[in-house]
């Protein structure tokens, strides 16, 4: 067994989780494979009813699960509620797609009959990170169920408890074997799942290094992968922007929500030199209003980082920024200074005066420290934004809408927001995913269904005699 600790009081054990070995993973995959034909054969109405029941089960015991999630993950309670609410929301949204999944396109013409249809892929492995474990798991589970696939889910070893509770409830509302859970780590459990030859698609959400390993493991069986990986999202504040309270508050919320541990948080700001001083000053003022403490304390605006290792990594980036001559400003307020050292707490920081090549600008910091760099021309800003191995999301800020959209078209990212950069701005109606080393594939809505089904053609030719073929 493996103990799950509370990031706000690191000595407290919130619960325990098993570490599934390859034999247990194999049993789970076999159970999913055995359930797959029956689940795939449901009618549209039966599948819609099943997903409705699943959505109901996902909502059970909501407040206790939200508290559990905050205790294991650290984030503030309202964020845990948003995370948990993702499961019923996504199940309901995917219910709407079931009819379209089942629809066949039939073309009868002089050549014969051509039927184009979608088949479920079969067993889908869903590998989940710790930052938004429930919502991110259901980003894959909900479309997989709607598509007629069965799933084996591997939660993160750092925050498995709330997700596992939801999965138990949801799986009890569905036929046996449709949802399976294998708790465990990445190197053993995750690897065994990604490498299993019966798994037909691996939907992985996590860091780029883990995604690379998963792709390698899946390659052995030519298993398809959907990879939702890390990001280093730039925000470009153009000369045509108005630097007001609304703008800096939006930048602050994007960068520091969940202590910066969001895949598409703003992770670097490029601002036109004419606004640089004003933006840094105004952003510092609103960031200074943040309070850092236990996520269950209603006075906390942000909680701790997930682990001691994460805290060390982010503190090292802050130290490095100071050592290379940057101006590092610590902001915000400790809610419980006496209990500060008990958790993995870190106040929000702004950093200026460091170059594009510095570690803080180049890395995915995944923590509450934000670099701000000036630019002189928009071409320079676009080049700086694109100077990254990542390409998840980005944002352009301007009061000239058309101009902002034109700049957005030049940015290498799966999503470029205009005058917004927030979780929720990309919802179930908008395909989401990364370019470059931020990932492969798209989730959300029909794009998610396409990832989790295969197109099948059924063909009868009435003109077979006229088709080209080998000489008689
Ligand atoms: P991680 O890669 O360490 O772990 C993610 C999951 O993969 C965990 O369940 C882990 O056990 C498993 N895993 C790790 N190595 C594995 C391997 N070799 N084989 C199989 N499974 C393995 O990531 P994390 O620290 O949990 O999450 C943070 C990262 O996730 C950040 O980089 C963040 O940007 C990214 N993320 C991306 C998105 C997105 O939608 N693009 C969403 C959330 C988080």
Structure description:
The chain is α/β, with parallel strands linked by helices and 472 residues long. The chain has two domains: 253 residues, Aldehyde Dehydrogenase, Chain A, domain 1; 186 residues, Aldehyde Dehydrogenase, Chain A, domain 2 (3-Layer(aba) Sandwich), CATH 3.40.309.10. 40% of the residues lie in helices and 22% in strands. The chain has 16 helices and 20 strands. Helix 2 packs antiparallel against helix 4, helix 3 runs antiparallel to helix 7 and helix 10 crosses helix 11. The longest helix has 19 residues. The model has no long low-confidence stretch (mean pLDDT 97). Bound molecules: nicotinamide-adenine-dinucleotide (NAD). Nicotinamide-adenine-dinucleotide binds next to helix 8 and helix 9. The site of nicotinamide-adenine-dinucleotide (NAD) has 31 residues, from helix 8 and helix 9.
Descriptive labels:
472 residues, alpha/beta, Aldehyde Dehydrogenase, Chain A, domain 1, Aldehyde Dehydrogenase, Chain A, domain 2, 2 domains, seven-stranded mixed β-sheet, six-stranded mixed β-sheet, 20 strands, 40% helix, 22% strand, binds nicotinamide-adenine-dinucleotide
> How far apart, in Å, are the first and last alpha carbons?
68 Å
Can you list the strand order of the major beta sheet? 13-15-16-11-10-17-18
Which small-molecule ligands are present, each listed once? nicotinamide-adenine-dinucleotide
Biggest sheet statistics: 7 strands, mixed
Fourth-tier CATH superfamily name of the largest domain: Aldehyde Dehydrogenase, Chain A, domain 1
Uncertain parts: none
Number of extended strands? 20
CA radius of gyration is: 24 Å
Q: What is the total number of structural domains?
A: 2
Structural class: alpha/beta
* Mean pLDDT rating: 97
The CATH class of the largest domain is Alpha Beta
Beta-strand percent range: 15-25%
CATH-defined topology of the largest domain: Aldehyde Dehydrogenase, Chain A, domain 1
